[in-house]
């Protein structure tokens, strides 16, 4: 017997004809109380409600007779089916529960719960997979007009969701994050306020390096809960959210480590800072795992740190300080995975803003350069500007962006910007900085200017996705930050990603435009910490093309705090 989807009775491969809807409803009512006697008055009330036939008991008996004939049509030589029997004070359906898909489903679910309690995740996953394959659609699909079947259908749907969640739990324990995302994504769209399901999906997304997607999912869920139920996200979901923000959510049986800055004296006993593990699915090279190059050191310099002198092998060519003005990019494996996944999602229609923050010299610009290089190598368009270079009039950053887009896509840009040409005359043309007349529209109608720029960017992104990169955001003026905040509200409308790099906000500041932007729920903030000792050693080794002494690496790490800029200065005076 099948109750998932349209109720069906099978004899082997042969489908039995159960007759008209009310005959099928009678079978459904008996199926709900399998192997239990259902009183005749109860069956009459559930079948006909407040409009029973003139002789309800006789009509019920007739229905039972028809149902018996239907079920016995495939019976063997032993005679008619006795599945439906009379037993005072009513009738019962006598059948092995394993012959009914719904009962088999719940039995597998119960066994899987026990497997999970015993931490037998593989067996639990197999049982739940078998159970979910039994599901062919809404239970009692053709009988939900009858209240008992409607209630049972809703109960079984909740059981199905529980099975989906437990299957996700087992799969996460087995490290099958891709499968979890594939299964839970459509479920999350159908049930946006089911917090357990959302928590598992957020966890899987995070483990795949899609931290931005996980955080956006949380914000959508919280908004949905507030709108539909008038409540905030539950404590468990909020803990998952906080762990993702701090990058402390476990990766299977391993734990991700925070990337907050811990430098200099804040390190405990000189212990190296652990680097977060890169989520599966990204193939960025981990420079810290690279084979150290060996061989005699062609030149030796000495670094005196706290009264202790360490030897460091340097290249034979003593080029002076300028020789170390540029260091190779190492480490940041986890951050590259997160930002790479975010960029893929943004350029596929899930636009968003991500901010890379941290102390000065920690490597924010270098990280964004690596990300944009990967995006360009994937054949995607990138528009990159530095806010510190824009010393001109209001919205100077955005003037530069519009100019870059007009050069990259002249025809498309001309078409989408035509209606705004007069309003944006001060931005769309190269005008002297002291041409006050052209700047007046900017001063008189700032919101119109900001809305027009956003409309142009969104229109161009819909035609062809692109990534917008803003470096040194902390130097941008209030008008430019105001426009960027407005753009973040429009990002879900287009395949447009905005990646910004900014110094940490001033703790003493009182609600600046930058604070408002970086603190927005629409902004994913990734704060960089110092490189680990291993990454520092790898960076120096790659730079000098020779192995770095362990004690020297420890000293460099301690005195640079893992900051590439501080390390650059140390090496320049070595």
Automatic annotation (TrEMBL):
UniProt keyword annotations, A-Z: DNA-binding, Transcription, Transcription regulation, Two-component regulatory system
Q: Where is the composition biased (Low complexity)?
A: 269-279
Q: Which residues bind DNA?
A: 1-95
Which SUPFAM superfamilies does its entry note? C-terminal effector domain of the bipartite response regulators, P-loop containing nucleoside triphosphate hydrolases, TPR-like
Domain (OmpR/PhoB-type) spans 1-95
Q: DNA-binding among the record's keywords?
A: yes
Q: Which Pfam families match?
A: AAA_16, BTAD, Trans_reg_C
Q: Name one GO molecular function term.
A: DNA binding
Question: Which stretches does the entry tag as region Disordered?
Answer: 262-296
GO terms of biological process kind: phosphorelay signal transduction system; regulation of DNA-templated transcription
Output compositional bias ranges, type Basic and acidic residues.
280-293
**Its family?**
Belongs to the AfsR/DnrI/RedD regulatory family.
Name of the protein: Amc0
| Source organism (scientific name) | Streptomyces novoguineensis
